[in-house]
Amino acid sequence: MTVGQTTAETQGARYIPGISGVKPSAEKYIPGISGVNSPGERYIPSVSGVKIEVLKEGHRFLFNGKSTKIYSLQEMDSAEFSNSASIQLGVDPSDILKVQYHDVERELTYEELSEILGITIKKDKATKVIAFLNCLLTYTERDQTNMAMQAESSSGKSYVITELLEYFPKEDVMIYGNVSPTAFFHEQGVLVDRDTNEPIDLSQKPGPDATPEERETWNERMRNSRILVDLEKKILVFLDQPHYRLEEYLRPLLSHDKKIIEYSITDRSEKFGLRTKKVRLRGFPTVIICSTRANMDNQEKTRMFLLSPETSVEKLNETIDLIALKFCNQEQYDLSCLKDARRKWLMTRVSRIKTAGIKDVIIDSPKAICSRFKETHKHLIPRHQRDLPRLIGLIKGHAILNERQREHIGTDRIKATQADIDAGFILYESIAEPNELGITPHVWEIYEQVIKPRLSDVGLEKQDILSGYRRIFHRSLSHKELAEEILPTLEGAGLIIKDQHPTDKRRIVVYPTDARDISHEEGIYPTDARDISHPRHEDHPTDAGDISQTNSESACYTVTGSKLEVCSNCENWRGSENTPMALCFHLGQSTSLEHTCQSWQPKIKSEREMRAGCGK
């Protein structure tokens, strides 16, 4: 399979023609690669007629029915490569170099990027592409984006991230398993002068022969010194949930409040005991946090892309095959995966993007982007102020991926195209719904497939959720994870309401929020105790005409109340107190639940008396 080939085209080879600085009169049409001309297609000029075929084993060049041998990556790095290939084809060596250069610089779509990343990361199309583009934004001036990779244990959170980072220069990646705030600052920090931020050379410390003034000047400089942690253009990865104090320190950095932020920390030494030190964090890094926790703090969730790896059967089938190859035959795995020529091709491209020094991407149509965003967001909320920049970041990331094919403005800016805008919207929409609710795709999948289809006004118990999860995903879900992480997260997002069981208050029942909102609109008492505990019945006018037509005798609804109040005159009932209970509204001869008496004369009836009265 060649670079740029889609899944539907894997039966045939794809050839990428060479290109020179002179535009030819004829152009060769190559379908399946997206660009500016039309979605999914673009034109690639054919100059010398030399074509390149990218295979797993390496590259092969073709011309007029002739072909070279397959060159490995090591052979293509040698000085004799272009001469050797040109002799085999009977062309000039410059033609070989031109087509080789153009192959690295050509347009690259997110579909093709996903295919290359798929050599070692199976499925997870949106997750791996979004994460990769966000990592490319590391090299911009201020468009860095943060990500949280959350899912259950053994789902591949850390694997996806570490595999992606193989394409980036090692010096730009900082990976931590776990680290305390103090250790992080000391390990990465450099002692600098307070005023100049220049490193302090400790070898210049005054010796025994120094004057008191020199020693005092040095001591004063050391007292005012700072520990500088330079995170400029770095990718900071935590393979597990970082220390909560470190998370707090990083929050202003994640929000890009200031490029240089100063903190005061305490440090213990044997000689001086506890001492206060000043730490400066400089730069906006790309921060990635891998965690199994579904209920992250809202202050982190609103500052990050929330991503999750897939756990579908299709993905697991492919990953099991890959794992078997890796552990059974490491040499074959290295040859077929790690030494794949397409991986080297993408690594080379990332390296060139870094050296290009692109600081910003200009988008000419901000109003068009806002209009397109508002079309799918009819009711704007405050958090959209942070969601829209993430969408724009994906547009910029796609433009930087193809910076050699974009119009350059000066030496450090490029202009995005419509293809970049379309790609950004497509990628963002694939994860928009859970992200804008503040939940991860992993929790969203559980809600959509397990909880939502079973929700009703009768309620859903936790055991029903656990059983449904087991039937759908063929594995068990921890009761603790469901009770302490998943359900609180969904409740915080406003997707469910938790209440006590109507008859057994030790059990928790889950209700849909939509049903309760509709019920409130239709005149049925809401479950919120604040809305039904007013002392006067007139405060809650209701219209139950439709209900009366459905059942002239009685109707059952879940409302709040540990006791019942019934009017002596019209026999209309309502709940009070704050304990959930299934109440039965006995309509009798009344056609409406609205209280019409001039005076409210309540008397207490037990649940048994109420049920007996309506025949339930």
Fold topology:
Elements: E1 16-17, E2 27-31, E3 41-45, E4 51-54, E5 59-63, E6 66-67, H1 73-76, H2 81-89, H3 93-105, H4 110-117, H5 125-136, E7 147-150, H6 157-164, E8 173-176, H7 181-188, E9 189-192, H8 212-223, E10 226-230, E11 235-238, H9 244-254, E12 260-269, E13 273-282, E14 286-291, H10 298-301, E15 305-307, H11 313-328, H12 330-338, H13 341-356, E16 360-362, H14 366-375, H15 384-401, E17 408-409, E18 413-415, H16 418-437, H17 441-451, E19 460-461, H18 462-473, H19 479-492, E20 496-500, E21 508-512, H20 513-521, H21 529-532, H22 545-550, E22 554-560, E23 563-567, E24 573-576, E25 580-586, E26 602-605, H23 607-614
Parallel strand pairs: 7-14, 7-15, 8-11, 10-13, 11-14, 16-18
Antiparallel strand pairs: 1-4, 2-3, 4-5, 5-6, 9-10, 12-13, 17-18, 19-21, 20-21, 22-25, 23-24, 23-26
Compute the number of structural domains: 5
Q: Which structural class do the helices and strands define?
A: alpha/beta
In the CATH hierarchy, the third-tier topology of the largest domain is known as Rossmann fold
Tell me the strand order in the biggest sheet. Answer: 8-11-14-7-15
Count of strand segments: 26
Number of helices: 23
CATH class of the largest domain: Alpha Beta
At CATH level 2, the architecture of the largest domain is 3-Layer(aba) Sandwich
Cα-based radius of gyration, to the nearest Å: 32 Å
The residue fraction in helices comes out at 25-40%
**Assembly annotation:** single chain
Mean pLDDT: 75
* β-sheet strand percentage: 15-25%
Anisotropy-based shape = globular
